[in-house]
Amino acid sequence: MASKSFRQITQDINQALAGFRKDAEGTMAGFGAMAKAAMAPGVLSELQKELIALAIGVAARCDGCIGFHVKALVRLGVTHEQLTETLAVAVYMGGGPSLMYAAEALRAYEEFQG
Protein backbone atom coordinates (compact mmCIF):
# COMPACT_ATOMS: atom_id res chain seq x y z
CA MET A 1 0.00 0.00 0.00
CA ALA A 2 1.20 3.49 -0.82
CA SER A 3 2.48 5.51 2.09
CA LYS A 4 1.32 8.89 0.82
CA SER A 5 -1.18 10.43 -1.53
CA PHE A 6 0.12 13.15 -3.81
CA ARG A 7 -3.41 14.43 -4.35
CA GLN A 8 -3.67 14.85 -0.59
CA ILE A 9 -0.21 16.41 -0.32
CA THR A 10 -1.03 19.08 -2.91
CA GLN A 11 -4.42 19.77 -1.30
CA ASP A 12 -2.86 20.03 2.16
CA ILE A 13 -0.17 22.43 0.94
CA ASN A 14 -2.72 24.63 -0.83
CA GLN A 15 -4.82 24.70 2.33
CA ALA A 16 -1.84 25.41 4.58
CA LEU A 17 -0.70 28.29 2.35
CA ALA A 18 -4.13 29.95 2.19
CA GLY A 19 -3.41 32.18 5.15
CA PHE A 20 0.15 32.83 4.02
CA ARG A 21 -1.15 34.05 0.66
CA LYS A 22 -3.12 36.73 2.54
CA ASP A 23 -0.47 37.53 5.14
CA ALA A 24 2.41 37.72 2.65
CA GLU A 25 0.45 38.98 -0.33
CA GLY A 26 3.38 40.82 -1.94
CA THR A 27 5.73 37.87 -1.61
CA MET A 28 3.17 35.45 -2.99
CA ALA A 29 2.31 37.81 -5.86
CA GLY A 30 6.01 38.08 -6.68
CA PHE A 31 6.47 34.33 -6.49
CA GLY A 32 3.43 33.80 -8.71
CA ALA A 33 4.72 36.29 -11.28
CA MET A 34 8.13 34.62 -11.26
CA ALA A 35 6.57 31.18 -11.72
CA LYS A 36 4.37 32.42 -14.57
CA ALA A 37 7.31 34.03 -16.36
CA ALA A 38 9.64 31.07 -15.82
CA MET A 39 7.11 28.49 -17.00
CA ALA A 40 5.78 30.42 -20.02
CA PRO A 41 6.52 28.66 -23.30
CA GLY A 42 9.54 30.05 -25.12
CA VAL A 43 12.43 28.18 -26.67
CA LEU A 44 11.48 25.42 -24.23
CA SER A 45 7.89 24.26 -24.09
CA GLU A 46 5.84 24.36 -20.91
CA LEU A 47 6.09 20.56 -20.79
CA GLN A 48 9.88 20.67 -21.02
CA LYS A 49 10.02 23.26 -18.26
CA GLU A 50 7.77 21.15 -16.03
CA LEU A 51 10.06 18.16 -16.62
CA ILE A 52 13.02 20.28 -15.48
CA ALA A 53 11.09 21.42 -12.41
CA LEU A 54 10.21 17.81 -11.58
CA ALA A 55 13.83 16.72 -11.90
CA ILE A 56 14.87 19.46 -9.47
CA GLY A 57 12.05 18.49 -7.10
CA VAL A 58 13.20 14.85 -7.16
CA ALA A 59 16.84 15.81 -6.57
CA ALA A 60 15.76 18.16 -3.73
CA ARG A 61 13.52 15.41 -2.25
CA CYS A 62 10.44 17.63 -2.19
CA ASP A 63 7.11 15.77 -2.01
CA GLY A 64 5.10 18.91 -2.71
CA CYS A 65 7.22 19.73 -5.74
CA ILE A 66 6.73 16.22 -7.08
CA GLY A 67 2.97 16.43 -6.54
CA PHE A 68 2.45 19.82 -8.16
CA HIS A 69 4.78 19.24 -11.12
CA VAL A 70 3.56 15.71 -11.90
CA LYS A 71 -0.01 17.01 -11.76
CA ALA A 72 0.93 19.72 -14.27
CA LEU A 73 2.78 17.20 -16.45
CA VAL A 74 -0.25 14.91 -16.60
CA ARG A 75 -2.39 17.92 -17.57
CA LEU A 76 0.13 18.70 -20.33
CA GLY A 77 0.04 15.12 -21.65
CA VAL A 78 3.47 13.88 -20.58
CA THR A 79 4.25 10.39 -21.78
CA HIS A 80 5.56 7.68 -19.50
CA GLU A 81 8.75 7.65 -21.58
CA GLN A 82 9.31 11.41 -21.15
CA LEU A 83 8.75 11.06 -17.42
CA THR A 84 11.12 8.12 -16.99
CA GLU A 85 13.91 9.73 -19.05
CA THR A 86 13.64 12.84 -16.90
CA LEU A 87 13.71 10.77 -13.73
CA ALA A 88 16.78 8.90 -14.99
CA VAL A 89 18.65 12.22 -15.30
CA ALA A 90 17.47 13.26 -11.82
CA VAL A 91 18.75 9.98 -10.37
CA TYR A 92 22.05 10.40 -12.19
CA MET A 93 22.46 13.86 -10.70
CA GLY A 94 21.14 13.07 -7.23
CA GLY A 95 22.19 9.48 -6.57
CA GLY A 96 20.42 7.01 -4.29
CA PRO A 97 18.18 9.51 -2.47
CA SER A 98 16.89 10.78 -5.82
CA LEU A 99 16.17 7.19 -6.85
CA MET A 100 13.82 6.87 -3.87
CA TYR A 101 12.04 10.08 -4.89
CA ALA A 102 11.94 9.02 -8.55
CA ALA A 103 9.85 6.08 -7.35
CA GLU A 104 7.57 8.57 -5.59
CA ALA A 105 7.26 10.61 -8.80
CA LEU A 106 6.20 7.46 -10.67
CA ARG A 107 3.58 6.80 -7.97
CA ALA A 108 2.34 10.40 -8.30
CA TYR A 109 2.10 9.95 -12.07
CA GLU A 110 -0.05 6.85 -11.64
CA GLU A 111 -2.20 8.59 -9.03
CA PHE A 112 -2.85 11.67 -11.17
CA GLN A 113 -3.49 9.54 -14.27
CA GLY A 114 -6.38 7.79 -12.50
TrEMBL record:
Instruction: Give the domain of life.
Output: Bacteria
Question: Domain Carboxymuconolactone decarboxylase-like, which positions?
Answer: 27-107
Q: Which residues form a coiled coil?
A: none
Quick one: signal sequence residues? Answer: none
List the InterPro entries.
AhpD-like, AhpD_core, CMD-like
Molecular function GO labels: peroxiredoxin activity
What Pfam families would the database entry show?
Answer: CMD
PANTHER family associated with the record: ALKYL HYDROPEROXIDE REDUCTASE AHPD, BLR3452 PROTEIN
- Name of this chain's protein: Alkylhydroperoxidase like protein, AhpD family
